[in-house]
Specification:
about 160 residues, alpha+beta, Alpha-D-Glucose-1,6-Bisphosphate, Chain A, domain 4, 8-stranded mixed sheet, 3 helices, about 25% helix, globular
Length: about 160
């Protein structure tokens, strides 16, 4: 299990070891990205060139960030990072356009929770989706589904 305190550092190493770029690029408004949020969720652009979504402003549970390179991470490299860290993967999906993991985390009070990390190819871009430390198990599942279904707005 990975602790919530180590989540940020862990996400960095997952990307670094899997070939994801460290620098992030702002999603241009002309991209026309379509993200179907769960009912009642709202989204807002964040200061770190990403989009946050959740139950209400200030209650963000999911983060979307466009990667500067349009390459999907290597699933085997990510599997290796999870294994090396002793992380218990709960759910994994992998295709040419989506790679997603749900995994166990240890909360501050010592209980077990879940988190998600996903990558979704949309056109020529790759987006990283990650749950935030305050996400409930249901929100992690909703975030996983939201990441998997991202697409281009064709209207």
């Amino acid at each position: 299990m990975i602790s919530k305190n180590r989540f940020g550092a862990y996400a960095f190493w997952v990307c670094a070891l899997s070939g994801c770029p460290e620098e992030l690029e702002k999603v241009p408004p002309a991209l026309g990205l379509k993200i179907s949020l769960p009912k009642g969720w709202v989204a807002q652009a964040a200061g770190d060139n990403s989009l946050q979504a959740g139950r209400a402003p200030g209650q963000w549970v999911l983060n979307f960030t466009r990667q500067t390179a349009g390459q999907m991470p290597d699933p085997e490299a990510l599997d290796g990072v999870f294994n090396a860290e002793g992380v218990r993967v709960i759910k994994k999906e992998s295709s040419t356009s989506f790679l997603g993991y749900q995994y166990s985390i240890k909360t501050k009070d010592g209980t077990e929770g879940i988190a998600m990390l996903g990558f979704r190819r949309v056109g020529a871009s790759v987006f990283r989706c990650a749950s935030m430390v305050n996400a409930t198990p249901a929100e992690v599942e909703q975030g996983f589904d939201t990441c998997r279904s991202m697409g281009l707005n064709e209207t």
